[in-house]
Amino acid sequence: MKDYSELYENNIKTLALAIDYCEQEYSHEDIIKELLSDNDIKKQLCIIELKKINFQEDANILTQNLTGKSGPVREAASYKILEMISNDLYNKFFQTTEIINILTKGITDINPTVSRNIIESIIYINNTEYLINNIINEIKITLNNIDDKSRSRSYKNNKKNFNLYWNLEALINIFSNLEDKNYTISQSIIENIIKIIEITYKSQDYTIREKTAKLICTLKHNNSLENIIISLKNDNNIYVKKHFFNN
Fold first, then answer.
1. Burial class (CB in 10 A: 0-12, 13-18, 19+), 174
2. CA 166/CA 139 separation, integer angstroms
3. Chunked in runs of 10, what are the mean pLDDT values of the chain (247 residues)?
């Protein structure tokens, strides 16, 4: 009972502290200062309270909270990044290669909410080619280390499939939004994507095959993938072949 009592006391103290923080008023400068601190409870509140980006350094500090921090801080940061990058007033502050590199890592966060928020955020990146190549490189690293011949559900294999899943989803979301940008994908990117598809469509994990099928349909560059499309159309999983019902 002593352990439960101590846990209860700690929770009450944490709650009281959070309430106290909520009752305080913060200037923009106070908020940015707290985003550099190690006080996770106060930092989460300040991320939520962040209303604007005044300088490039503000965006840098916010984005740095997306990796290497506690789960709640990363999640709060991912929501705020999406809010800010999608705002025309602040979008320009999130276009540096350093920030794009951090966002690329955020795609495969262990928290799916963070992954989803970042996948929504990256469609507002202007340097599309740099972003796509970043993701392609991450996929290549994963594919070079994955053991798809093994049927074991080891932690390492599951983590690699997890990374592959979210990076493929990121590519799908980017390509789905390229028509609105009137952007033409370079031939080198298409060739790299096709090389990835030629591997992932054979995955033993149906979720990877499903994302591969969706990516093919999103790309609309299907001539060289005819045999792969036929294979996926005849996949034994309904979620894989559904993407070709109308094709």
1. buried
2. 10
3. 58 55 74 91 90 97 96 96 98 98 97 97 96 97 76 70 96 88 83 95 95 90 82 94 81
Place of tokens 């502050």: 93
What span, in angstroms and rounded, lies between the C-alpha atoms of 156 and 235?
26
> What is d(CA 247, CA 226) in angstroms, rounded to the nearest whole number?
12
156/154 Cα distance (integer angstroms) = 5
C-beta of residue 59 within 8 angstroms of C-beta of residue 35: no
Contact 114, 106 (CB under 8 A): yes
DSSP tally for the chain: helices H, then strands E: 13, 0
Structure token pair of residue 137: 């490189």
Q: b/e for 95-125, b at 16 or more Cβ within 10 A?
A: beeebbebbbebbbbeeeebbbbbbbbbbbb
Q: Residue 214's closest CA among 203, 204, 229?
A: 229
CA distances from 146 to 23, 150, 211, 229 (A): 49, 9, 17, 23
Per-residue pLDDT, 173: 96
User: What is the dihedral sign for C-alpha 188, 190, 194, 196?
Assistant: positive
Amino acid at 163: N
- 0.85 cut: is pTM over it? yes
SS3 183: coil
DSSP 57-108: HHHHHHHHTTSSS-HHHHHHHHHHHHHHHTSTTTGGGG-SHHHHHHHHHHTT
Q: Nearest to residue 26, comparing CAs of 10, 16, 37?
A: 37
